Amino acid sequence: MSKRLAIVDDDYDVRNLLQNSLAADGYAVTALSSGVGIEGILAKEPHDLVLVDVGLPDLDGLTLTRRLREKFDIGIIIISGRGDLTDRIVGLEVGADDYVTKPFELKEVHARIRSVLRRQERERGAGLSLHGEQFRFEGWTLDTSSRSLRDEAKQVVGLTTGEYKLLETFVRRPNRVLSRAFLLDLAHDNDSPAFDRSVDVAIARLRKKLGDVSTSPELIKTVRNGGYIFVAKVEVSSG
Fold first, then answer.
1. 171-188 burial, b for 16+ CB within 10 Å, e for fewer?
2. Does residue 97 sit in the same domain as residue 157?
3. How many domains does the chain have?
4. What are phi and psi of 9, to 5 degrees?
5. What is the pLDDT of residues 18-42, one digit of tens each?
6. pLDDT tens digits, residue range 197-230?
7. Which pTM does this prediction carry?
């Protein structure tokens, strides 16, 4: 079955270019000029990945990315004309898996899409092979079969694929110092561009979602010149 992608971009030329190129590559493509209605479409027909333009006229792309991350287990790639480091970091902070700047090469977009989709497949496959292990810590439960994080009230907290992999790595290796280089390798394939701050961004997002105050963290602690360490007591059980 072909992967299903969605494109949300108000620029007709860009949207049409992407739609035709991705369809020719075998993807099933839904193309929208507005962010309004995309959530209903995804709820009715699950998609594997969505390309979101930042400069949408009705609902800005960053807000839309945040909302999609909270509600759906889906790959998200932001497309933007703003490409400096701060903009990229903001895009990752709101939940994107990757960030592409305009003007772009179609080959690059295709490569980044394949990279995000591969990470999703690997992580979902890993969850199934582990027979649904559940990791409990400080009132939280990370379930590898559903790749979900739930709080004490059993409410699901949305995670990007990178955040999920990072948290799973921590709960499997509590009280061990993990270097930034090691953590960076987890979140990126060999053909997926990475930059040093991406680990710090992912850590900051995890801390926020876990209610772990960044100025005085109690779960994920920074080790100077060493990396990070997950200090919570972790209990493991089969699902």
1. bbeeeeebebeebbeebb
2. no
3. 2
4. -155, 130
5. 999 999 999 999 999 999 889 999 9
6. 678 888 888 998 998 876 778 899 988 877 899 9
7. 0.60
